[in-house]
Amino acid sequence: MSDYPSILLEQAVNQMASLPGVGRRTALRLVLHLLRQSDHDVEAFSTAFTRLKKEVLYCRECHNISDSELCPICASTRRDHTTICVVENVQDVMSIENTGQYNGVYHVLGGIISPMEGIGPKDIEIDSLIERLTKGDIQEVILALPTTMEGDTTNFYIFRRIQNAGVDVRISQIARGVAVGNQIEYTDELTLGRSIVNRIEFKA
Amino acid sequence: MSDYPSILLEQAVNQMASLPGVGRRTALRLVLHLLRQSDHDVEAFSTAFTRLKKEVLYCRECHNISDSELCPICASTRRDHTTICVVENVQDVMSIENTGQYNGVYHVLGGIISPMEGIGPKDIEIDSLIERLTKGDIQEVILALPTTMEGDTTNFYIFRRIQNAGVDVRISQIARGVAVGNQIEYTDELTLGRSIVNRIEFKA
């Protein structure tokens, strides 16, 4: 006999425990919480994830998660489309938006170069960034990647790619007000906001 | 514009954040983790909860979660069906099973009496417990409820109900004392005091 009194329960716990940072005991507690909700609520819970997975789009310009082909930021005429802020992921866009300090557009790489994890330049949206720069009227690229070795590697790689492409654009990176070793999404808004205002020009 | 770049994403985060102890930032991280999984995996994740909710049964004897009308413990001929251990919930059954120290059957109340939360005796499986005692050949009832005021209240209420029913059965409650492996000096005074009052004779 399994530890669980029900195979259905065990399967639900297994699924919940597959989420990062959720242990089996917590998973059981969460599943039993769900079980106490109404049929309708459990249905709504489950549907939200399958719908997101099936219907989600990625903005054709910045590659951020979007409900339409062009995300609200890229579609906005109020934003400065001559400045592109390059970030690792969706959370980073939300974090920078929350500072209220940035009015340009974004480019979501969907990861950073990490030889340790086998993530190379081709695995993330760098080619499409270069394409945006060669096509559009871009004045400045702000690199807002994590202040880690992987972030620095990616910064440098992008810098060289832009140089090689012969695009005339100012390249900056966010000020090192962000503590070294920290992730962008966990930085407090004040520090993150200042680091954008005080961005420094990228020099190899 | 909402904080989220996608309404679908926001809805998924809302659902994840509806789980107890899951904040919005954690919810976003978990949802984006799910989004990186395959269609099949996300489908399996969602289905586990709706299936559990739709198909789960409760044992007609002990009211534990079960895949069949009678749970594996109540259906087992190897268990001692003359001893019933009364517990608050499913997790408690699993915890006691994991000790390997108990071979009787269970009765899952599905809660404990809590006037503060508006949970009375009629809201939990006490009537069905008394019914089991009057019908069956039960020798002992072990009360294994939380050592809280609510647990004590429920213990006492069940004790009186059994007395009033005129059932001849031994009633016990789990021992309270210093947890195994704990230092005396770090044990709270109430527990330590009780463990002295309720001391047991030393047998080598």
Question: What's a quick, concise take on this entry?
Answer:
The first copy, chain A, has 204 residues and is of the alpha/beta class. Chain A has helices spanning 7-17, 24-35, 39-55, 72-75, 90-99, 127-135, 149-165, 189-197, and strands at 57-58, 65-66, 80-87, 104-108, 140-143, 170-173, 200-201.
Structure description:
The structure is a homodimer of 204-residue chains. In chain A, helix 1 crosses helix 2 and helix 5 crosses helix 8. The first copy, chain A, has helices spanning 7-17, 24-35, 39-55, 72-75, 90-99, 127-135, 149-165, 189-197, and strands spanning 57-58, 65-66, 80-87, 104-108, 140-143, 170-173, 200-201. In chain A, the strands form 2 sheets. In chain A, strands 4-3-5-6-7 form a 5-stranded mixed β-sheet. In chain A, strands 1-2 form a two-stranded antiparallel ribbon. Chain A contains 8 helices and 7 strands. The termini of chain A are far apart. The model of chain A has no long low-confidence stretch (mean pLDDT 91). With 204 residues, chain A is an alpha/beta fold. Chain A is 44% helix and 13% strand. In chain A, strand 5 (140-143), helix 7 and strand 6 form a beta-alpha-beta unit. At the A-B interface, helix 1, helix 2, helix 3, strand 2 and helix 5 of A face helix 1, helix 2, helix 3, strand 2 and helix 5 of B.
